[in-house]
Amino acid sequence: MTNFDAVVIGAGFSGMYMLYRLREAGLSTRVYEAADGVGGTWYWNRYPGARCDSESIYYNYTFSEELYREWTWSSRYPEQPEILKYLNFVADKFELRPDIQFKTRVNAAQYDEENKIWQITLNDGSTVTAKYFITGVGCLSASNLPKFNGLENFKGEYYHTGHWPHTKVDFTGKTVGIIGTGSSGVQAIPAIAKEAAHLTVFQRTPQYSAPARNHPYDPEYIRQAKENFQEIKRQMRESTGGAPGDIPTKSALEVTPEERLEKYEEAWRIGGQGIFTSYYDITVNEEANKTASEFIRTKIREIVKKPDVADKLMPSYYYGTKRPIIDTDYYETYNRENVSLVDVKKNPIVEITEKGLRTTEGEYEVDVLVFATGFDGMTGPLLKMDIRGKDGVSLKEKWNGGENTRTYLGVANAGFPNFFMITGPESPSVLSNMPVSIEQHVEWISDCIEYMCENNMESIEANVEAEEAWSKHCGEVANATLFSKADSWYTGANIPGKTRRFLIYLGGVGAYRQKCAEIAANGYEGFHFEKAPAPIQGSIK
Ligand code: NA7
Fold it and tell me: Residue 519, Cβ neighbours under 10 Å: how many?
């Protein structure tokens, strides 16, 4: 049996940096990755129009200034192929591939209490062991293909946006149906509409979206960013959302309607997430939220020429409480002659047929079906594996269908020694610029492991009380906002049968970083260690 100091799952942003840090610390480390290449999310989500909604000069690693200076982004919001190229560039630069085993899934992991070691079972049935078991599986990697009746009868092609083929899907001359209008659908719809003979959008919930106004970068802007690397890095790490920018200090309700409108218009003109971040109470106060919601609804009415289509596109939930979307020509696409919109909340999908799909209103024939139906977020990727801690208790049993999903800091679990989750449930994760939160977790975990090596510790485990307190705190922060009211993947409401819980820490990236640093500085408060009987032997330098 092969033994490693550490096993990491996933070769996306998280797993690649974790490997880099652990290798630097002298640990023998193996990364297992299901795909045949690095990239994680950016390996799988290759659908037309896929791009990031964080600005590219902030959507990258900051652990290496040399890397930051060597890589140059082409535009404000990078497209999937460019991000994938970046991650391949990182893998090459730091020679990560020799320690990554591709086309390999981890099916199960069991903590061996006696030997204080994880036994990790791979999809070929083989088992390896590791002292530390770390997941870098992302928050949105378990795709959700709803159980539509009759899918097996469909004679055309069908695809899920989160598992897009590596060869181009050609929509030319075809009739296409797309189900879902989250970020993926909103990005894919304009791109598919340009190619297809006809595109029918099956929409359950209308969305608020703001224009991205993507544009190529001015070389001078990039030069300045590289010049100011240290300051940008500091601001990213200390910010609320993981990118530099003004933290809103005003309430939407304390300014005049004219001032507010001017601010929203300016944000709409510049593009990006500016409306979401314009006032501090947009996601906290219903009245404040209404001002932003109504502003976007007015824009939809202005853009969409057919009033009946505009009516169908009118969102009514609290803006920002589902993932705020930015787009390129999303609402404009509904002015095209080859695009139609079907309201499947009013007339739900009954079944997939041989030729297309049937709603309660009638059948729609299509050559291709695209499922932009999202993911089982946060817990889904972790629960796909059978992870068992002390006494053979699985994560699934511990979390009990979501009723008891609890973690300590979103990084550790009581009952699961030497197990770390990068951007796990109850950490800032998806409500931040992901690479910043990933780096913070990776650095915290590798510092912790180095501390254990230096102090001859055999195991670390979160205390039940600390976990309960953290989980309670997360819930309290979330309940003070409007987020928990939305039926979103944030709350798990998109997955039938999943217990509704808001599993993202909303205290902000900077404050969370400080809290984690204080816990470490206080000898890892809320955790307990077991000392090794003899100095630890191994490959640690
Ligand atoms: P999302 O945001 O979860 O969107 C999924 C979409 O699919 C959404 O419009 C759903 O409607 C719709 N959906 C899901 N199930 C069904 C069924 N059964 N019938 C009809 N429509 C359905 O996933 P995305 O991939 O777009 O984005 C995920 C994240 O990736 C995104 O937020 C970014 O962070 C990156 P609903 O709104 O649930 O009514």
Answer: 20
CATH of the domain at 466: 3.50.50.60
The protein residue with its alpha carbon nearest to ligand 1, atom 14, reads 373
Pocket test of ligand 1: the residue of 149, 204, 378 to mutate, having most ligand atoms within 8 Å of its CB, is 204
Residues 6+ apart with CB under 8 A from 384: 142
Element (DSSP H or E) covering residue 236: helix 229-238
- pLDDT at site 541: 37
Rounded alpha-carbon distances, angstroms, from residue 7 to 30, 249, 502: 5, 43, 29
pLDDT the model gives residue 403: 87
**226 domain-assigned:** no
- Domain that includes residue 10, residue range: 2-142+377-531
Question: Which residues of the chain fall short of a pLDDT of 50?
Answer: 538-541
- Which protein residue's CA is at the shortest distance from atom 23 of ligand 1? 374
Amino acid at 445: I
Q: How far is ligand 1, taken at its centre, from the CA of residue 182, in Å?
A: 4
Q: 337 and 394 in one domain?
A: no
Residue 294, classed as helix, strand or coil, is: helix
3-state SS track over 431-449 = HCCHHHHHHHHHHHHHHHH
pLDDT digits (tens, 9 = 90+) for 49-68: 999 999 999 999 999 999 99
Question: How remote is the CA of residue 373 from the centroid of ligand 1, in Å?
Answer: 4
Instruction: Looking at the structure, tell me whether residues 16 and 55 fall in a common domain.
Output: yes
Which tokens is 96 given? 């990560």
DSSP string, 116-132: TEEEEEETTS-EEEEEE
Q: Does any domain span residue 352?
A: yes
Supply the pLDDT for residue 1.
81
Q: Are residues 363 and 450 in the same domain?
A: no
Are 462 and 524 within one domain?
A: yes
- Are 190 and 323 within one domain? yes
Do 100 and 158 share a domain, yes or no? no
pLDDT in tens, 397-455: 999 988 899 999 999 999 999 999 999 999 999 999 999 999 999 999 999 999 999 99
CB 289 within 8 A of CB 319: yes
Ligand 1 centre from 12 Cα, in Å? 22
258 and 360 in a single domain? The answer is yes
- Please indicate, yes or no, if residue 541 is contained in any of the structural domains: no
Residue 63 — φ and ψ, nearest 5°?
-70, -20
Q: Is residue 391 located within the same domain as residue 439? A: yes
Report the candidate in 319, 427, 423 with the shortest Cα–Cα distance to residue 41: 423
What is the tally of structural domains in the chain? 2
pLDDT at 247: 82
- The pTM for the full model equals 0.97
Q: Write down which residue in 371, 402, 424 finishes a domain.
A: 371
